[in-house]
Specification:
By secondary structure, this protein is α/β, with parallel strands linked by helices. It has two domains: 177 residues, 3-Layer(aba) Sandwich (Rossmann fold); 172 residues, Rossmann fold, CATH 3.40.50.460. It contains twelve helices and eleven strands. The relative contact order is 0.17. The model has no long low-confidence stretch (mean pLDDT 94).
Length: 388
């Protein structure tokens, strides 16, 4: 099939999403000489509005330069198309004679592709290529973008630990990840020693209780003289509501254009600061929201992550020949392997950290979780242990 391929990027940018774009474009040029490859600007919004760039006009050197650049080169969108919106997307695809549509993104992106595949009646092959720093796609061992973001978080918490060994106190780092705790857990990947940070980890998979939170901090301070905490933006209370929703008055909550509560804005940090000031008065405490810093940081583009993201894009082209679906990354015991599952297996679903990744009845990570992180994030820095 020579034909026309359309590629788009959706959701949050990452350090390696452009690797997937380049991997797909280069694979198409080699496998289908003469094929036209269009890049939709700002995701499906660009398809709807007829805004494209011709990627097949670019040289391999130009595509590889884009690949090594963080961000989303085509621009992205948070649009969550319904059936009516998808009809407009299909019209946009048909207008350019698209034979296949490769959409790079997370579970919402897979959902869009599922709707489009059904609506097109198979006349346009729809492929979902995985991308998310949240690492929350089912059917995957890990996702492109996660390792680079996790490397930022791991390095940040190692650095904070060294800082707070020198000047002890309480530190809380709030990490992205939506409703999955994988990225927050990566704070422990490069922990210096048995007493290293983070001492406590709060993730969405385990309910947050204010009284237990304060008890945990007091116990950690008594044991280590300092307390460093990794907290997920999506941590929730026993009633299932997000912590930020529980602690912040409704009129003060930040919301996105869809009305969803912004989990990693300033609200949660301010609420945690108030808890510490009220329940642990006089203690030196600092709360930081990492926000977008880990997402596409040019200083922490992981080489393995980049390689796998590129290969996932190339595999997405092979998936076109197999009728479409969602590309997956799995671990076969030795290496990452690529597979293909139906779009419905991934669309709209969230993968959570497994229960055995957490120590029972404690806000700490298990050896199984630490082994998983060690496989994906081998230690990068040789750091001497301080005297204090």
């Amino acid at each position: 099939m020579a034909g026309t391929f359309v590629i788009a990027q959706g959701g949050g940018p990452t350090a390696v999403i452009n690797q997937t774009l380049a991997g797909a474009a280069l694979k198409i040029s080699r496998r289908y000489p003469g094929a036209r490859v269009l890049g939709a600007l700002h995701g499906v919004r660009g398809v709807r509005d007829g805004r494209f760039v011709t990627l097949s006009d670019l040289s391999e050197a130009e595509l590889r330069a884009i690949a090594s650049t963080p961000g989303a080169a085509l621009g992205s969108t948070r649009d969550k198309p319904d059936a009516a919106y998808c009809d407009l997307i299909l019209k946009g695809l048909r207008a350019v004679g698209a034979d296949a549509f490769i959409y790079i993104g997370g579970n919402d992106t897979a959902g869009t592709q599922e709707i489009l595949a059904e609506a097109s009646g198979g006349r346009i092959v729809c492929v979902h290529a995985p991308k998310t720093i949240d690492n929350d796609l089912v059917e995957n061992d890990h996702t492109p973008g996660f390792i680079s973001a996790a490397e930022f978080v791991a390095g940040a918490f190692l650095s904070v630990d060294l800082d707070f060994r020198a000047l002890p106190g309480i530190y809380v780092g709030i990490v992205m990840g939506r409703h999955a705790g994988f990225l927050t857990a990566s704070a422990a990947a490069w922990s210096l020693d048995e007493g290293g940070a983070p001492h406590l980890v709060y993730v969405p998979e385990r309910p947050f209780e204010r009284s237990r939170f304060i008890e945990d901090i007091r116990a950690t301070l008594a044991r280590h003289g300092r307390c460093i905490i990794a907290m997920s933006e999506g941590v929730s209370g026993p009633d299932g509501r997000s912590l930020v929703e529980t602690l912040v008055p409704p009129e003060m909550l930040e919301r996105d254009p869809h009305g969803n509560i912004r989990l990693s804005g300033s609200d949660l940090a301010q609420a945690v600061e108030r808890i510490l000031a009220e329940d642990l008065p006089g203690k030196r405490a600092r709360v930081d929201t990492f926000g977008y810093l880990p997402r596409g940081n040019v200083a922490t583009v992981n080489t393995t992550d980049a390689k796998e993201a590129f290969e996932a894009g190339a595999f997405a082209v092979e998936a076109v020949e197999r009728g479409g679906g969602s590309v997956t990354l799995q671990f076969d015991g030795e290496k990452t392997v690529y597979g293909l599952v139906p779009l419905a297996a991934v669309a709209g679903k969230t993968r959570h950290m497994p229960e055995h990744f957490l120590v029972p009845d404690e806000n700490r990570l298990s050896d199984a979780c630490l082994s998983y992180l060690a496989r994906l994030l081998p230690r990068k820095y040789a750091v001497a242990r301080p005297f204090v």
